[in-house]
Amino acid sequence: MRPLAVLALGLLAIPARGDIARRRSPVTDVVQKAGPAVVFIGTEQVVDRRMRGTPLEELLLGDGRRPQRQTVQSLGSGVIIDSSGTIVTNDHVIRGASAVHVVLADGRQIDAEVVGADAQNDLAVLRIQSKTPLPAAKLGTSSDLMIGETVVAIGSPFGLTKTVTSGVLSAVGRSFKANDQLYIDFLQTDAAINPGNSGGPLMNLDGEVIGINTAIFSGAQGIGFAIPVDKVRRIVQELKSFGKVRPAWVGINAMDLTAAISKKLGWERSDGVVVDSVDAGSPAAGAGIRPGDIVAELGGSPVQDTDEFLARVRGYPARAAMPLVLWREGKRLEVTVTPVEFPSEQADSFAWDRLGLRLTPSRGTLAVSAVRAQSQAEGFGIDRGDLIVRLNNVALDSSESFREALISARNARSVLIVVRRAGRNYLVTFRL
Do the domain assignments include residue 294? Predict the structure, then answer.
């Protein structure tokens, strides 16, 4: 009997190869194919905290607090997109960091260099050095996504590395407002995404990256968001080439549609924006876009209103083709506009036309050299000789700094300018 008993025990020890094959699924295939390219990202940031002092310190310091330098750590995820060590993550994962390190799937920890970051699109590119080629995930496309298709998220929620969740693609082209900020053109999924997943990939069942996980609704369940990979590809190329996203110029000045305008133009829908004016010599003018055209779609998705349209336009860097669908005189038109880098000299014309100001360098800042009649500047009482010292949060020390700040802010509805006269500062809000 003993040989039979030994044989029985031996049979129990044999791995159930057939069961493993049966348990395999498209999700496990994705994890095995692309999982090694997903990394954990840790950062360190040195900050000054104000601490309560002793009674003597409160008396001497006046404000009752003393500074104390502390190191704050944060975490997130990322994905390697080429074998040489290029990593994509979110800007908010590495923003303000004094040190960034990456932990690979094989356990190696490597210090990372920040190649470039863009807060507006919440994307960043890192680079690490390795003596051997690294596993890389393939970037797919977000142009053929299907609502309801299975998606897989991989990341490090709450520091729990190599965590895999799956679900479906709930929506595309999703826009929403949170914390007084407009977020546009996101993928929505019910795959579990938690703090620490930020910067990790959202993948299709082919193991391709279709988005970069970036946000969740606080307190919600089954609602997560990812930046679509077509947008990621555009921004990453810009960051790799220039270290930043260069301001791009399209030349469309749009306004919201009213019931009266829609009726006059024969537009029977509630979405879309109408072209109010087109900048002379701009890419939009070259593409034949005219005032009165209705912009119905951008990049294959409907346009909702002016705020959303401008935010989506900012996602296209220079030389990235921008497909538009227009409505003109009852006909549907498809055009492609290719933004160009905003010419710095155009900022001077923009300042004169929109603000009514012409500036010249003076005493380490800028002085008003002319004020256009019947302009906003004249209405605010700004006069020649006044100093313009800040635009939004940018200190102005040269004509170039003013141009760059105005170009960056040109698509906003307003801009805050600090005017100095007789040693006193005045805050003036200009409409754009």
Answer: yes
Pairing of strands 99-103, 109-111: antiparallel
The answer to whether residue 92 is catalytic is yes
* Catalytic residue list contains 101: no
Q: What is the pTM of this model?
A: 0.72
Q: Which of 185, 198, 307, 386 is catalytic?
A: 198
Catalytic residue among 74, 77, 91, 122: 122
Find the catalytic residue in 92, 156, 230, 386: 92
Amino acid at position 295, single letter = V
Determine the pLDDT at residue 356.
95
Range of the domain at 178: 138-242
* Alpha helix segments (H runs only) across 14-133: 17-23, 26-34, 55-61, 91-94
CB-based contact 185:214 (threshold 8 Å): no
- With H, G, I as helix, E, B as strand and everything else as coil, classify residue 278: strand
Residue 402: closest CA among 426, 367, 353 = 367
> In this structure, are residues 387 and 421 in contact, taking their beta carbons and an 8 Å threshold?
yes
Give the pLDDT confidence score for residue 57 in this predicted structure: 47
- Residue 216, CA distances (Å) to 69, 84, 196 in order: 31, 31, 11
CA distance 10 to 12: 5
Residue numbers of the chain with a pLDDT score lower than 50: 1-2, 4-11, 56-61, 64
To which residue do tokens 């997943």 refer?
197
3-state SS, residue 130 = coil
122 is catalytic: yes
- Same domain flag for 270 and 182: no
In this predicted structure, what is the pLDDT of residue 136?
96
Q: 144-149, long-range: CB within 8 Å, 24+ apart, which pairs?
A: 145/169, 145/172, 145/187, 145/204, 145/210, 145/228, 147/171, 147/172, 149/204, 149/205
| Average pLDDT for the chain | 86
What pLDDT score was predicted for residue 58? 47
Residue 301 has what pLDDT? 85
Is 329 inside a domain boundary? yes
CA atoms lying within 13 Å on the CB side of residue 13: 6
φ, ψ of residue 320 to 5 degrees: the values are -100, 115
Domain-embedded: residue 3: no
